[in-house]
Batch of 4 targets.
Target 1
Amino acid sequence: MPKPQSFANHVKFDPPFHFFVLPVFLINIIAAIVLLVRAPGLGSAWWVVLSFAFMVFAGRTRSFVTHLQDRIIRAEERLRLSALLRDPLQSRIGELTDSQLIGLRFASDAEIAALVKRALDEKLNSKDIKKSVATWRPDYSRI
């Protein structure tokens, strides 16, 4: 059973990515720059370019995954809110920003209506919404 999730511990790291791939690519950039300084030339310069390309590739790949997850979360939350909210809040679902929808995913069904109203009226951002959640609805699938 996973540890109960809360605002304090909901950020997730992917150990193979964050603690292996990124450090290896960073070390590779440093090694390539050292090689270029010690032995300047086209080959060592090209290795620096490739090293940066690997790092950018890793970052963009991670970014694509998280952006896709955000799109899925937004769709899930709009559907969930359509089922849980009544007018006049239901007719205001379209006013919620992407950030607000992503933050609201952690709110329990019992508190969602009040939190949506606050988010809209007070223009709360994702972090403020998450801090306001009383009963945390965990998301263990986030990458």
Target 2
Amino acid sequence: MTGGLMKTTVSRLALAAIASVVATGAMAADLGGNCCADLEERVSELEATTARKGNRKMSLTVSGHVNKHMVWHDSNATDARRPDTFSIQDNDSAGQSRFRFVGSAKIDADRTVGYVLEIGISENAGVAFSSDGTLNRVRQNHVYIQSATLGKLSLGQQSQATDGIMDITLANIRQMNQGGTVDSSRLLGGNTAAVFPATQGNRVQAIRYDTPVFAGFTLSASWGHFTAQTEAVDQEHDTWDVALRYAGEFNGIRLAAGVGYREQENIGGAIAATTDKVWLGSGSIMHVPTGLFVSGGVGSRDRDRNNAGDDFVHWHGQLGIERNWFGIGNTTFFGEYGASDFDVEDGPAGNINNGTFWGIGFVQAISAAASDVYVGYRNYEADNLNGVGRGDDIGVFQAGMIVRF
């Protein structure tokens, strides 16, 4: 009797447990179904409003930076494009704001096909540095095939082999005025700063080849053609160049260097039917434990025309220290000096200026935000040989920030 009662009780408890499990499962199934339906609806909404790649084979990476600075100068030169002494502008001379699309896809274990499309933001056009910015500056627009064993072949709008080879530095100072570039100061001070010409390579429609890295060395060569058309004149330029770069580190000493040669044929305009022959190079060395560094570059141009100022030599040097003193990123202090010397032996000296510049700078990296804050000062001194005010000194102060994404 007792045994039968116990069996009945156990059976009832088992049935109740089974019923509870079934009911709970049914509720979970309903909840999961409603949850998934809501999630799928949200995903569909996001997909409808999100930019997507055109295919799944080619990767897509979007990157770039915004580089803004305040600029003050003390030039009273009548040929200055900016009559005021203070302006807020895009830092065109050392890292114009830009965005880029980069993609690649593997053919096999050795070969890769890819593309680079980079657009610059142009806001500094005109005398007043107009705030009506445009996207009309295509910096890079090329395709490439790369082999780990044979190298890289690129075609389209891109940097020449000698682009950037005069401003090689291991320090975090490239977001400021570089040693071979004074575009920002030229816009402010007119021809006074223009006596410090850059011999850098440019970005042109070109075909370019880069070897793989051998023992730290890379050899590059390019051939290109570009035009400059205005209402008054059409100019065409055929150009070719070669460059050799090196990077390495030994026993706490980091090294980087490069040398290049470029020939450019100029047709049309004020420099009709001339050929520029340009030698240029730069190097940088850093003692990693202390952060002490030295960088420098030199460039010379020989133009096949008997006229003053066509031939010149430009050089610059930088000395500084870079350490992570504050824990948020490297802090860089540096000083710099540079000069341009024109050859006036074969032409009228009244049209040419020589000059020197010196400067100091500070850069604070914010590693967690991929950003840098920088402050710098440069003083330009030009010899006045033509009596039109180009001998006035210019002091240029800049303070800005670059944010990368």
Target 3
Amino acid sequence: MAKLWQKGYELNEVVEAFTVGEDPALDRALVKWDAVGSMAHARMLAAIGVLTAEEAERLRAELAAVVALDAGGKFEIRREHEDVHTAIEDHLVKTLGDVGKKLHTARSRNDQVILDMRLYMRERYAALAGDTLALIETLIDLAEKYKDVPIPGRTHFQRAMPSSVGLWAGAFAESLLDDLLFFEPVVAIVDQCPLGSAAGYGVNLPIDRQMVSDLLGFAKVQNNVLYVNNSRGKVESMFLSACVQAVNDLGKLAADVIVWCVPEFGYFTLPEEFCPGSSLMPQKRNPCPFELVRASASIVQADLAAVLGVVKSLASGYHRDFQLTKGPFMSGVETTLGCLRVSRVCMERLKVNAEACIRAFTPDVFATDRVLDLVKQGVPFRDAYRKVAASLGETAMEDPIANIRAKTHLGATGNLGLDLARGRAAGERRKLSQRDVWEKAIERLVAG
């Protein structure tokens, strides 16, 4: 089997192993996308007369067979292939002969891998958005169910003012909704078809880049062929930046749950099936899923830093450095997905201990409310503040449930605005359903 670049010499074995790196393993996630991209490319080559219609159909059918093999875990990328592109071309040459050798006309592995990654990003965005929405909806339901369960709000981790489980859960729901907004401009950049840029300088054939873009369901063609090449790593870093926002929120959520599950707080309890134990201490039930989510926020940030570090200050054009953006990018995306999914599963079953939440209140939590009571009586705020501060021991204990219900301005404990959050979530669901255009385009290509 000849490599796609083969021209009469062999690489040193050590060099070959080093330069191939992780690609054979990583590219298993790209088999479908490389195949469907090749289907669109073949259709276009037939339209400009490089292939016959019969040759394009034979290629489509065999590439569809590759997709089916991959779905069944039966398509192999061997180290000697180097990457998914070579593995698929090798398969096509073995099954179709010379027709398989024609497919690479007018493209390079450069624009091929960029296309594969864009298609991978589109699909993973749909998964990320779907899982984020599922968690948001879980948090809104939790906020509704426990809107009247008070907990002490904290600043500097010290008791501050009355809060509620509903306010806490609703805060994370709205934060994750904003994370989805952060993804939208990134996805608009992802949704550009790079194929046809070849090695970054175009080709002297009358290729139809718009046709390929339309066949693959992209919103538009990425115009400048050199920018296509220069955008590798840049687009991945934008996508990971959005992932970082989401996983940072999940890390904060995890930190709260971990602390509030300890017996000294006891606000929450995690079901035992979510809590691995200790090999030594028989009483232990540990919040390991949330501990790993908390740590994963740092891991995804490190993946983003790795991608940015690889592409920083590279001169224009292709460099082999770009190969090393694929691993951290995929790792960051898959880690974010895993964190979203495990967080939703755990939050769906989280037990809230209302009595423990109420027991956590002490009179000083109501000090700020006492200041504002004096303000309502006409006392200047600063004088009221100092009066209460001088007599904190005299602050009376209140009913915390009545207290949180009494704060009815928009977004406060007595008026969480959950209908607003539900409306935003429903709007995001509708937007996500519009992404069906991607899936339908791919289905049409595979079916022929």
Target 4
Amino acid sequence: MAAGAEENEEYEEPEAVELPLFDPELYPRSYCASLGWRLVILACSALLALGALCGLALFDFASLLNSTPLAALFLIALFAVFLGLGLYGLLYGFRFRVTLVADHVELVEPFRRHSLQRSEILGRRVLPGGQGFSVIVLVSSHAEHNKLRIPVLLKPDEAFRRWFYDLTDLDRSEVFQSRIDIEATFRPELPAEEKSRQVTRLRRLGAAFNAATIALLGASFVLPDTGLWLLATVAALPWVAIVLVARFQPLYRFAVRRNDERVDLILPLITPGLILAVHAVSNLNTVGWQKPLVLACAGGLALTGTSVRVDSWLRQQRWAVLIVGLFACIYGYAAGLESNALADHSVPQVYLVKVLSKEVSESSHVKSWDLTLEPCGPVSDQETVSVSETEYQRIRAGDAVCVELRAGALQVPWYRVGHCNSQKGYRSPQRPYTTRYR
């Protein structure tokens, strides 16, 4: 066994001048997990399995089964999954082995054994696995999806590196190919020097746009009161990204590959919907779910269809299209509700409703002040609604509040809750709704 118990180090690409070509005389050689990684895997797995066993042994499932059987079954299944993961990790620490033979490679794991002939390997990739180790991916020439992933939980020696050294580096090949494609297809009528200047300038623009997206998303969480200007800017980001991709193809694309040197604008396309959704859910209360669902589908189809139409590369990525469609539906739901409320000039119907209880809930950076109202008017059942912090402090459990129901600019009925003024009957808030990010 070669270097099985030595300290592990991350696999690094060898320099061409350091190693000769592949030498069949050095093999077979077998490698197991290094001592450091084996101790880490075994310790974590043992703690996970022990915690699951303690949970199964000490938890009073009998009484829980009588009161809430679904919760009991869920906990039993959860502990069983943790126990299975712990036992699998224990087996993995002892069973993990990589065997290099002159004509093939073999990976042994707890319940399976993988092998790949050297003559069938199209090339290799190196993926960062995190926490100090890498993953070598060997791609078969028969099918792109037929891959062998080898976690480098061992001490790579010279023989280990030699075996992989002269295999085609697919990561580097894809980088070179993307450069060739950009040079051949982006503004072919321009001189080489001018084209290089434009590519450099547009790369900086794309990087700045992605950075601005991250800054705006962070600001929407940090600012105590997100203004309408920030919401409008966030809502415009996906459409700006679509315009940029349509204008500067093929340099700009959505969902590019890891080793592609094109600028990927998928971040401003899919993330704004999440921020708008947090704001809409925290501040807008709708009557029924059918019409908001229509808004989500309509907005999702519009955003997804437009992005697919302008980017021929995205049309070829089925899973990427599905993911974009999911985020686009979230965007359609949130942007639709925001527009429905902001552009609403209908005459409100006001209902006097009793507050049954009040509670402050906080999740991550999002804080909301919630009231539980009795059934009345647009609230058919006891329902928890969000109000501003000022209204929350003014209202006590047992008080009566005014619920203002509006038709909605997009014909989606929505309502807001406010403190009733004894002199004027209802004190309408100055703004339709306020953000409560902390």
